[in-house]
Amino acid sequence: MTQTQAILGSLDPVWATIKAEAQTILDTEPAMAGVVYGAVLHHKSLESALAYRISQKLASGDMSESVLNEVCIEALADAPGMGQAARADIVAIMDRDPACHRSIQPLLYFKGFLAVQAYRVAHWLWLKGREDMAYFFQMRCSEMFGVDIHPGAVIGQGLMIDHAHSIVIGETTVVGDNVSMLHSVTLGGSGKEDDDRHPKIGNGVLLGAGAKVLGNIKVGHCSRVAAGSVVLRDVPPCKTVAGVPAKVVGEAGCDQPSHEMDQLLRG
Question: Mean pLDDT in the chain?
């Protein structure tokens, strides 16, 4: 490693780690060269790699990869917080997903990570008043990843979506920082009202597989929603809720449920 590489690695350790892992893939699996060069080694920054990967996945006969790449590059340059959020998401996945052993895996293989980064571009478009392009991103994410996040939703950083199949997040949803959710989670409305109608999920919350949180209700910081539960009322902080409809069944069991990923209900 050169002195310049060492300095850059200390400034952006996530990206430096991803590049080093990409080189290891080349050494051990030469057939992956095209994928690794295109997705990682061709780029000077994680932001550039994200723009490439998102546009590559979402391109279609209706919208070319080059047009989508330009949109992503513009968004990531205008909102530096998006790159920081992506790095926090990668760190969160590494920390919480036992199937993730390298920082490069979310960028190359995890549809939940890619869907969330594409949502971040769509949200930037939404805030800029470019609603039709934002809707296009939402549609393609739903088609390609099975993850349907409305571009108007507000989502924090450090998000980990495990497996990420059949995720639905509505327009006025707010999701805090360091949240973990498993597949088939719905953060939806409960009627035909056209105002603030979706859940508000606090920091450090764990949402189990198949959990449904419906309506303009709050799930307090560091709470757990058990798998298969249907939540129709506010959840206090640091509690565990379970059932249909969900009821408080005990304490959260730890300070940071989203980090521990412990979904067992104990008596």
Answer: 94
Query: Could you tell me if 154 and 168 are in contact, meaning their C-beta atoms sit under 8 angstroms apart?
Result: no
Q: Where in the chain are the domains?
A: 1-147, 166-267
Instruction: Give the position of tokens 């959710």.
Output: 181
Q: Of all residues in the chain, what percent carry a pLDDT higher than 70?
A: 96
DSSP 28-50: H-GGGHHHHIIIIIT-SSHHHHH
Topology of domain 166-267 in CATH is UDP N-Acetylglucosamine Acyltransferase; domain 1 (2.160.10)
Q: Which helix (H) or strand (E) is 168 found in, with range?
A: strand 167-169
Tokens found for residue 169: 């997040």
Instruction: Find residue 161's DSSP bridge partners.
Output: 181
| Cβ-Cβ contacts under 8 Å for 179 (sequence gap 6 or more) | 156, 158, 159, 160, 201, 203, 204, 205, 206, 207, 258
pLDDT band at 265 (very low <50, low <70, confident <90, very high): confident
Does domain 1-147 sit in CATH 3.30.9.10? no
Q: Which helix (H) or strand (E) holds 212?
A: strand 212-214
State how far the Cα of 185 lies from the Cα of 193, in Å rounded to an integer: 21
Q: Among 199, 207, 58, 34, which residue's Cα sits nearest to residue 120?
A: 58
